């Protein structure tokens, strides 16, 4: 709704003849709404509010936001300010533009995923890598352990956003990838990084808040790790265990502050219990809750795997448990009968992202109403 008002006011268009102060304010308002629109659209599986082709207003200038005098703003525009707190925000906005290209290219519904892969994915991957390489120049080198309300200016936060974007790009291809392929390994690595970096921010930042976006990103990252394990049990090691545990920790943190997230947290724990914990044999204690596991059981335990027939059965359990999300709330929220039951028949070759969309989409009003009562942070 806010974006519609902005478009109605013409904030998405470039106009000449305005004062520097008004021009910069219009840019900041529009691009903030653009970023929120893209974040919500990706998470809820909704169309974006405005096409990138209809936008010609430039990103905000890299100047101090406290400057309001036109002459001072004009002087600031003519010099190189270097890295500023505003430059970090601009860098995130650039990532939102790249993610919008990914979403509108890879997730388009008028073409099958197979027709959207290949060269397009490589081009988008190159854009993401270039964005990551620019983090050092755009984000001030602040202490990662410093507790500050502006945690978004930390480089670790930007690295987190990069890995989330990698998942956005590669998840539709994951079921078709060989476990030995680089993209499969990258997808698993980025999923682990999402959990670990969220946990790192939580450990060092008392001002960190969570929202539907953080919940969705953590949950998808955790499911991706579990799926990768079921696709190839040989990937199981201490790092994978730690990465899944990090996702579980963040889901617990979010659910303690946001009661509506408990169903997601409980479903994630059930999936772990019925897939990984049942699949890794010869372990008297769960590897997800025992940091000394590696020392106690050695590499033989870490490399434990299941026979092929049991792997397929366990993979079916993954989808069955995923389908239980929201079942206990179906009567309470009058969830349509066909919104989740179709997940029961989803094979392991289906798109993980699409399997999550119905639940988050049906609960859109519930999530957004809860967001209005919390510290809304869509990162």
Automatic annotation (TrEMBL):
Annotated CDD domains: fungal_TF_MHR (cd12148)
Cellular component annotations (GO), alphabetically ordered: nucleus
GO terms for biological process, alphabetical: DNA-templated transcription; positive regulation of transcription by RNA polymerase II
Xylanolytic transcriptional activator regulatory domain span: 1-66
Cellular localization per UniProt: Nucleus
Chief location: nucleus
KW Membrane (keyword) present: no
GO terms assigned for molecular function: DNA-binding transcription factor activity, RNA polymerase II-specific; sequence-specific DNA binding; zinc ion binding
Keywords from the UniProt entry: DNA-binding, Metal-binding, Nucleus, Transcription, Transcription regulation, Zinc
PANTHER family the UniProt entry points to: ZN(II)2CYS6 TRANSCRIPTION FACTOR (EUROFUNG), ZN(II)2CYS6 TRANSCRIPTION FACTOR (EUROFUNG)-RELATED
Protein name per Swiss-Prot or TrEMBL: Putative transcriptional regulatory protein
Organism, scientific name: Cyphellophora attinorum
């Amino acid at each position: 709704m806010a974006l519609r008002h902005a478009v109605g006011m013409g904030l998405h268009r470039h106009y000449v003849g305005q004062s520097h102060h008004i021009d910069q304010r219009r840019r900041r308002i529009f691009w903030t709404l653009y970023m929120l629109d893209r974040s919500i659209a990706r998470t809820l599986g909704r169309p974006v509010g405005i096409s990138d082709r209809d936008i010609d207003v430039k990103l905000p200038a890299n100047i101090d936001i406290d400057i309001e005098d036109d002459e001072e703003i004009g002087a600031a525009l003519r010099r190189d300010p270097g890295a500023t707190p505003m430059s970090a925000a601009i860098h995130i906005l650039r990532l939102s533009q790249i993610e919008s290209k990914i979403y509108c290219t890879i997730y388009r519904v008028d073409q099958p995923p197979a027709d959207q892969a290949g060269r397009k994915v490589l081009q988008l991957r190159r854009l993401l890598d270039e964005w990551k390489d620019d983090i050092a120049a755009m984000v001030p080198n602040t202490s990662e352990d410093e507790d500050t309300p502006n945690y978004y200016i930390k480089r670790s936060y930007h690295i987190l956003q990069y890995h989330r974007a990698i998942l956005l790009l590669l998840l539709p291809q994951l079921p078709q990838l060989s476990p030995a392929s680089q993209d499969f390994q990258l997808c698993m690595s980025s999923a682990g990084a999402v959990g670990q970096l969220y946990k790192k921010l939580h450990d060092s930042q008392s001002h960190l808040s969570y929202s539907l976006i953080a919940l969705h990103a953590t949950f998808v990252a955790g499911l991706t790790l579990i799926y990768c394990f079921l696709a190839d049990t040989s990937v199981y090691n201490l790092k994978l265990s730690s990465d899944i545990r990090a996702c579980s920790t963040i889901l617990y943190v979010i659910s303690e502050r946001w009661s509506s997230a408990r169903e997601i947290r409980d479903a994630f724990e059930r999936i772990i219990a019925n897939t990984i914990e049942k699949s890794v044999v010869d372990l008297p204690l769960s590897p997800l809750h025992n940091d000394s596991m590696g020392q106690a059981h050695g590499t033989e335990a870490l490399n434990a795997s299941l026979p092929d027939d049991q792997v397929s059965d366990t993979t079916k359990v993954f989808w069955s448990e995923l389908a239980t999300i929201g079942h206990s709330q179906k009567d309470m929220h009058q969830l349509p009968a066909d919104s989740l039951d179709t997940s029961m028949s989803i094979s392991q070759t289906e798109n993980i992202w699409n399997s999550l969309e119905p639940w988050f989409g049906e609960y859109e009003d519930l999530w957004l109403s809860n967001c209005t009562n919390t510290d809304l942070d869509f990162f």
